[in-house]
Design a protein that fits this description.
heterodimer; A: 305 residues; 2 strands; B: 282 residues; MetI-like fold; 15 helices
């Protein structure tokens, strides 16, 4: 009896509020996971950065000491500069990708296969890309130096030279990134309005002018995504550095993400607090970009309604 | 079409184009071609300094045989599969549901939650590293595949939800309204109306996440240690330590490690590109 008494109202409460309750039920698992593994850890990193902690023993509160130490840390400064190099040079992937996309945007026999093969580097893990490029750069036996000496120049030890190593790694990173941008632009070019192109052609536009005034504006969505993924890729760079130079020579190829890992988890000591402070700096740099990305997407959402 | 179709150009330009294409491709893939050749060379070629010439004999079978039968590589590969597949299933399942909630229902917190997922997806991993490693240790999941899988599911949910939500929003809303008028329960609408329509999105996302997770290196290094749970990206470094300076072996190992996502890409190219370029065109 009791069951029949209570269950109809309970059921109808759900029925009455079904539309309001259902989304939360569907969201619950995703939000839970995201909270536990993403949002809370961000907060925790901020708080750990105020402590001196080796990851095992007692954490000691030190206030902003870790951040003060960063100011005098020349390795941190090098990492920061390298991050800047990565950011700026990585952006070259966007025009390079556009260039290749334009080159491949034809309909000849076998072009689909060519497009996939050009995209190939992106699918391979960065670890393998790093290995491949470090063999390419080998001081004596590497293909690069075979080519260089063939033309009568002195061999160069790209990854062993503190001034060159970072650029060598960035070039390795540009390879898959360019492929990514290329595929974005190939899809974008597919969607370019042919009537506008024809109209512009009748008006006498061609070549660079056509590209600049007619095509590129229409590729704006593709450019936006390319920009987002390239910036993120540049700031996340870790795999290649770890594989190709492990931060060396003399720590000259470190970036923030790598230096942070080194400080917190490598044999140089487990300085969790200091590592977290570096991560916070990296996060704040990223936050400027995230804010911009979100703002752009937000605007789009508002227009979309 | 831009640039102007090559068919409308003079014959000379067409011939040049078809000649330049393979040359450009070869240059573009030169590093990979080199590794592929490395992997079938005998060891003696490297000791004699024949790095970039033709292989003096074809040792592909020996080299790859050694990778499969004389190293931890098969184990790493299996680990990678056992990490990647559950992650794909988990992340796709969670994001189908979250995407449904965010794409179909109008409620006040909708956009805020959506943007929370989007923002989380852009976050640099390093800010999560220390706490997530700590949490994994506390849960007793350090150096287990489960620990990696749980984290990957959580982190990938951000991107997947963005993807799914946008896909669901583009579906005709009239379908859902019609079902509601019929009095179909909301979860049944999800299961019988929306989910079947999401098949292409699920396919695209699965291939994409498979590649991302397979290629992950950072978290593999942070959360796992030994051959019993490390995926192949992390395993390749120990593999290379085992075969130090044996370039033919390291090349063969790298190719084996890189192959599954490549195979996935070529098998499901259309879906892969659809996933990757989401939002690149309106």
């Amino acid at each position: 009896m009791a069951v029949t008494d209570t269950s109809p109202p309970a059921r109808s409460w759900y029925k009455r509020n079904e539309i309001a309750v259902t989304p939360w039920l569907f969201l619950a698992p995703a939000i839970l996971f995201f909270l536990v593994y993403v949002l809370v850890p961000i907060y925790q990193s901020f708080s750990i950065s105020l402590y001196n902690w080796d990851g095992l023993g007692e954490a000691r509160y030190v206030g902003l000491e870790n951040y003060v130490e960063l100011f005098d840390d020349s390795a941190f400064e090098v990492s920061l500069w390298n991050n800047l190099k990565w950011l700026l040079l990585y952006l070259l992937a966007i025009p390079a990708g556009l260039f290749i996309a334009l080159f491949l945007n034809q309909t000849v026999a076998g072009i689909r296969m060519y497009k996939s093969l050009f995209f190939f580097p992106f699918v391979i893990s960065q670890v393998v890309v790093g290995l491949v490029f470090s063999w390419f750069y080998l001081p004596n036996e590497g293909l690069l130096n075979n080519i260089v000496t063939f033309f009568g120049f002195d061999p160069i030890n790209v990854l062993g030279d503190p001034a060159l190593a970072t650029y060598g790694i960035i070039i390795a990173g540009l390879w898959p990134q360019t492929a990514y941008c290329m595929i974005l632009y190939l899809t974008g070019l597919n969607a370019v309005d042919p009537e506008q192109v024809e109209a512009a052609r009748l008006d006498g536009a061609k070549g660079w002018k056509m590209l600049w005034y007619v095509i590129i504006p229409q590729l704006k969505p593709a450019t936006f995504i390319a920009f987002v993924v390239t910036i993120i890729g540049a700031l996340r760079s870790f795999d290649l550095i770890s594989i190709m130079t492990n931060g060396g020579p003399f720590g000259q190829t470190r970036v923030l993400s790598f230096y942070m890992f080194e400080k917190a988890l490598s044999e140089y000591g487990f300085r969790m607090g200091y590592g977290a402070a570096i991560a916070v700096v990296l996060f704040l740099i990223m936050l400027c970009f995230i804010a911009y990305f979100l703002f752009s997407m937000w605007r789009e959402e508002k227009e979309g309604r | 079409m831009f640039p102007r179709p090559i068919q409308t150009q003079p014959r000379a330009a067409q011939l040049t184009y078809s000649a330049v294409l393979p040359i450009a491709l070869t240059l573009w893939l030169l590093p990979l071609i080199a590794v592929a050749i490395f992997s079938v060379k005998p060891a003696v070629d490297f000791t004699q300094g024949n790095y970039w010439g033709m292989p003096s004999s074809f040792e592909g079978l020996t080299n790859y045989g050694q990778v499969f039968f004389d190293s931890d590589m098969p184990r790493y590969l299996l680990n990678s599969v056992l990490i990647t597949v559950p992650t794909v299933i988990g992340a796709v399942a969670l994001s189908c549901m979250a995407g449904f909630a965010l794409g179909i229902y109008k409620f006040r917190a909708n956009l805020v939650i959506f943007f929370m997922f989007v923002a989380g997806n852009f976050v640099p991993f390093q800010i999560l590293m220390v706490p997530v490693r700590d949490l994994t240790l506390d849960l007793g999941l350090y150096n287990t595949k489960t620990g990696l899988v749980l984290f990957h599911i959580a982190f990938q949910t951000g991107f997947c939800t963005l993807f799914m939500r946008n896909f669901i929003r583009a579906l005709p809303f009239a379908l859902i309204e019609a079902a509601r008028v019929e009095g179909v329960a909301e979860w049944r609408i999800f299961w019988y109306v929306v989910l079947p329509l999401m098949k292409p999105a699920i396919a695209a996302l699965s291939v994409l996440i498979f590649t991302f997770i397979w290629n992950d290196y950072f978290w593999a290094v942070v959360l796992t240690q030994g051959p019993e749970s490390q995926p192949v990206t992390a395993g390749i470094t120990s593999f290379n330590a085992q075969f130090r300076a044996a370039y033919h072996m390291m090349s063969a190992g790298s190719i084996v490690a890189a192959l599954p996502p490549v195979a996935m890409f070529f098998a499901m190219q259309k879906h892969f590109i659809a996933g990757l370029t989401l939002g690149a065109v309106k």
